[in-house]
Amino acid sequence: LGLMIGVEVIAPGNGDKVGPPDGKLARIIKLKCFKNGLIIETGGRNSCVLRFLPALIVTEADIGAILDRFERAVEAAHRHISGKGCEADALVDRHAIA
User: Fold this and answer.
1) Residue 87 in 3-state DSSP?
2) Could you report the per-residue pLDDT of 53-67, keeping only the tens digit for each?
3) Of the candidates 7, 71, 67, 12, which has an alpha carbon nearest to the alpha carbon of residue 42?
């Protein structure tokens, strides 16, 4: 018995069309989460689903902290793919994202 929540990562689409699954971006977000102290898993088709597995006794405050760390990770991943990341991020990511 447990709790699992999944977030599918997709590439931007055009107009009303949804973009394709983006496993590479999901991996970058996962690594940025780890750097922020949040451990999540990837899975699903194309490894594009980020899996959150909190304890069943998770509190509202815990969820807030998880979402704060996740938001920072998504922002850092966006900077990474747009080439606006900081040098420290690049040093870590060069070895982790191959």
Assistant:
1) helix
2) 999 999 999 999 999
3) 7
Tokens linked to 63: 């969820």
* Residues sharing a CB contact under 8 Å with residue 60, sequence separation 6 or more, in sequence order: none
Token pair 């496993």: residue: 23
Residue 89 CB partners (closer than 8 Å, separation 6+):
76, 79, 80
Structure tokens that stand for 10 in this block = 């997709």
Phi, psi of 25 (to 5 degrees): -65, -40
| This model's pTM is above 0.85 | no
Q: What is the layout of strands, in order, in the sheet containing 41-43?
A: 5-8, 49-52, 41-43
